[in-house]
Design goal:
- The protein has 226 residues and is of the alpha/beta class.
- It has a single domain, classed as P-loop containing nucleotide triphosphate hydrolases (Rossmann fold, 3-Layer(aba) Sandwich).
- It is built from eight helices and five strands.
- It has a five-stranded parallel β-sheet, with helices on both faces.
- Bound molecules: thymidine-5'-diphosphate.
- The site of thymidine-5'-diphosphate has 13 residues, from helix 4.
């Protein structure tokens, strides 16, 4: 199959790993080098998916079980792929996405105990062939990640997934490392327990060689969807 244009980079990891800060750094660096960059996130990133995000993160779907939640994540993902990500890639844009399919594998699949066959069937429908070219896995101990997420949250109530225990978060960390080990061509584990600038340098060194020549024919940056 011919390689599609654009570049699809996803960021994964537990809460408080610093994904959004690093996405901002990377987007700035790539834009300064003349690339067109779209920053987006999951669950959400398109109007339809943002509507579903509310339902999921409020915990309203929790009582209906992990299958229901997984379907909602998949519905949101497919809308995001078809409305935002695929068109951007087709236009040659670099798409940086905060969480994607590996989050479902880890949160619903591993810590939600959802059957692997069920999850993979949903994923096929959700991503519809749009698989990341590169996935940055921000690796941080559960204690540190949770402490950071809590201090960042201030007085805001924790969301449905932030209420869970250190043990669960540690399990997720291991699950991400397993995904990385199984797919080393796509996944890059980055030690997130360092100064932000050092992490940013490492991530740029991973992504820049994949980005290809600058797309200077399109002068304006694509707007950020957040
Ligand atoms: P968000 O506030 O975006 O958190 P974060 O800053 O950690 O990305 O909340 C997203 C939450 O949804 C997060 O706890 C992970 C969870 N999630 C899943 O369980 N499955 C998924 O497929 C995705 C995309 C997210």
């Amino acid at each position: 199959m011919a390689k599609r244009p654009g570049l699809f980079v996803t960021f994964e990891g537990g809460e408080g790993a610093g994904k959004s800060t690093q996405i901002r750094h990377l987007a700035d660096s790539l834009r300064r080098r003349g690339h067109d960059v779209l920053v987006t996130r999951e669950p959400g990133g398109s109007p339809g998916a943002e509507a579903v995000r509310h339902v999921i993160l409020s915990g309203a779907a929790e009582e209906f079980g992990v299958r229901m939640e997984a379907i909602l994540f998949a519905a949101a993902r497919n809308d995001h792929v078809e409305e935002v990500i695929r068109p951007a890639l087709q236009a040659g844009v670099i798409v940086l996405c905060d969480r994607f399919m590996d989050s479902s594998r880890v949160y619903q699949g591993v810590t939600g105990n959802l059957e692997a066959d069920y999850l993979e069937a949903l994923q096929r429908v959700a991503v519809a062939g749009v698989v990341p070219d590169c996935t940055i896995i921000m690796d941080l101990s559960a204690e540190k990640g949770l402490a950071r997420a809590r201090s960042r949250g201030g007085d805001a109530a924790p969301d449905r997934f932030e209420r869970e225990e250190v043990q669960t978060h540690e399990k997720r960390r291991e699950a991400y490392l397993e995904i990385a080990a199984a797919d080393p061509g796509r996944c890059h584990v980055v030690d997130a327990d360092r100064a932000s600038d050092d992490i940013a340098k490492d991530i740029l060194a991973i992504v820049e060689p994949l980005a290809g020549p600058e797309s200077s024919s399109v002068p304006n940056d694509v707007e950020t969807v957040e």
